[in-house]
Amino acid sequence: MNMSYDRTSELKLTKISDWIWEIPQSYRSDMRVPARIYASKEMLESTFRDRSLQQLVNVATLPGIQKAALVMPDAHEGYGFPIGGVAATEYPDGIISPGGIGYDINCGVRLLMSKLHFKDVVTMLDKLSQKVFENVPSGVGKSGQVKLSVKELDEVLKEGVNWAVQEGYATEEDQRHIESSGHLASADPRCVSLHAKERGKDQLGTMGAGNHFVEIDRVEEIFDEKVASLLGLTKGQVVIQIHTGSRGLGHQVATDSLKVMMKVMPKYGVSLPDRELAGVPLSSKEGQDYFKGMCAAANFAWTNRQLITHQVRGAWKSVMGDSGGQLGVLYDVAHNIAKIESYKIEGKEKKLIIHRKGATRAFPPHHPEVPAIYQETGQPVLIPGSMGTASYVLVGTEGAMNETFGSTCHGAGRAMSRTQARKEMQGKELLNELTERGVSVQTKDIWSLPEEAPYAYKDVENVVDVVHNAGIAKKVARLKPMAVIKG
Amino acid sequence: MKTHKVLPHTADVRLWVEADRLGELFSAALEGMAGLIKKSQSELQKGKRVEDSLKLEAPDVTALLIDFLSLVLTLTHERKAVFTEVSFEKLNETSLNCTIKGFETDGFDDDIKAVTYHEAGVKKNDAGRFETMIVFDI
Fold first, then answer.
1. Is position A410 annotated as part of the catalytic site?
2. Where are the domains of chain B?
3. What are the residues facing A289 on neighbouring strands?
4. Which one of A236, A316, B109, B132 has the lowest number of neighbouring Cβ atoms within 10 Å?
5. Cα–Cα distance between B79 and B71 in angstroms, integer?
6. In chain A, count of helices (H) and strands (E)?
7. In A, which residues are within 8 Å of B67 by CB distance?
8. Which chain B residues contact residue A445 at CB under 8 A?
9. A125 part of a folded domain
């Protein structure tokens, strides 16, 4: 287990370009492909500090892995896979690894757009953020306003946002602005355990804790006027981000499947250097069971963000009144997920199993899976910053299709442990500092607030610049936070 | 004798546990996890007492410990309770029967998503004591 961690100092990286570095396949005898890192030279120093690169080398040993194990510039040490990792395995007999998706299945980001300029909202901001805080349950183990029967929960798991449309929590227009329309058809509620269902039955429409949040932002800068205009973004506009996932239900699906996979791996001749990389061929019964359960948890997560949208809309209407207009959905992306997608490998179109763990899909203009309204722009990519720093809207590119299996970064990426972050500053002090910077914060847990402080994360601007310069996403707009409602 | 200590980790929580006996190691790990879930034990003890019986099998002792903590975490969320004590009716390297006890609570502090197998490896150290690292996904 965890072999060769002590060899980090021996890693010799080959420079492919200013933004791409490679660990050759020859570095370790069990690597099946090289490992590629998207980072600036300066960022490599920080990436080297933890075990993320050795974890990436372990990913390169997965049976059926194609081309290269990839990691994005927001990389940091995870468990099994590094956070920021992307791995494509052969379909249907390559490995599917729950560790390549993460415990929070379909953790993701949604961006809502208002038609108002921040000057129209600024005097109502405190009232608005308080109302959002009231409407969206947050914190660990907190129940939501919707209590589902077993039958209803199965419908959510099977249908995702289709269910929310039927129940009046979403419009068809919302659904057109969600990755995969918020519904993965392979989902099967029978592949979700009773424990997972028990954990999920009262959690729909809840934010959770940790780095999850609802954030009221304004568009601070536009980098690409034409694309921004097509997306509906203008300078000064008020937008709202939602960052959360599949809650306890998804965590339990991942936990259950890891246990099963570790047991059956020998049956399929799979041996891996880290238990958290456990995986089986997708075509096996256990692989299919996990994939169908993961799809169900992903449907739950999209429905969760939809219900939070409904609650945020309620808060918006209650505070801003009819003059506030409607909050539309710009887009909703998953950054912890596995998808079956097609790519050109050695000139031939091939179906692959794409694992994204802390990485965002970034499909280019004219891709068939990009909604009709974004055919000219490419798929919107939403990159949340840390509390108090900027977030970004980007769009997908051909470069991502050619190089990174249609993937790009997902956030700033942690740079400091939670313990160290709490030592740096007390919650009250951070709250005051953020207030001075023009960012108000609503939280029930001021003690833990420093864990998500800007200084605990990498500089999101550097991360976004790397993916932009490497051509695996294109910058469109920068968002500035005005109010953070923390989980 | 048993002990546990929280160590730094970039994104998650790393807990080191050490004990003279295997049962104590499991108990120290349980206490360490309970301390992450609810920081104030005095506040926790105001809640209604709860208990549950567990029966588990695993391929080795490390998997047994991680699966034990995972099951306790699941019950923590299902029953909205924090479990702080364990007594074993049976415990060997691949199976256990035990009773866990704790208290109901109306909220948790840290959101532990999962108990991971990453870095875990129960072994006897040079002092002849059981020890392991446990990484919690937060």
1. yes
2. 2-137
3. none
4. A236
5. 12
6. 15, 19
7. 259
8. 109
9. yes
Using a CB–CB cutoff of 8 Å, tell me whether B117 touches chain A. yes
pLDDT value at position A6?
40
Residue in chain A closest to B82 (alpha carbons) equals A141
Q: Is B5 on the interface with A (CB under 8 A)?
A: no
* Total tally of structural domains belonging to chain A: 1
Query: What are the tens digits of pLDDT across the range A277-311?
Result: 999 999 999 999 999 999 999 999 999 999 999 99
Instruction: Please tell me the distance from the alpha carbon of residue B133 to that of residue B119, in angstroms, as a whole number.
Output: 6
pLDDT tens digits for range A391-428: 999 999 999 999 999 999 999 878 888 888 888 999 99
Fold of B2-137: Archease, Possible Chaperone; Chain: A; domain 1 (3.55.10)
Question: Is residue A431 included in any domain, yes or no?
Answer: no
pTM: 0.95
Distance of residue B2 Cα from the nearest chain A Cα, in angstroms: 23
Asked whether the predicted pLDDT for residue A10 surpasses 70, the reply is no
Strand A35-38 to A69-79 pairing:
parallel
- Interface size between A and B, measured as CB pairs under 8 A: 95
Contact A140 B111 (CB under 8 A): yes
pLDDT digits (tens, 9 = 90+) for A62-77: 999 999 999 999 998 8
Q: Give me the domain span that covers residue A160.
A: 5-415+457-486
Question: Which one of B10, B113, B118 has the shortest CB-CB distance to A414?
Answer: B10
CA distances from A429 to A260, A298, A389, A446, A486 (A): 46, 37, 17, 10, 17
pLDDT the model gives residue A11: 77
Predicted confidence (pLDDT) at residue A7 exceeds the cutoff of 60: no
Please indicate whether, in this complex, the C-beta atoms of B10 and A258 are within 8 angstroms of each other: no
Residue B114's DSSP bridge partners are: B137
Q: In this structure, is residue A445 part of a structural domain? A: no
What CA–CA distance (Å, rounded) separates B8 from B26?
Answer: 21
8 Å CB contact of A140 and B6: no
Identify all chain B residues contacting A252, using CB atoms and an 8 Å cutoff: 74
**B12 CB within 8 Å of a chain A CB:** yes
pLDDT exceeds 90 at position A44: no
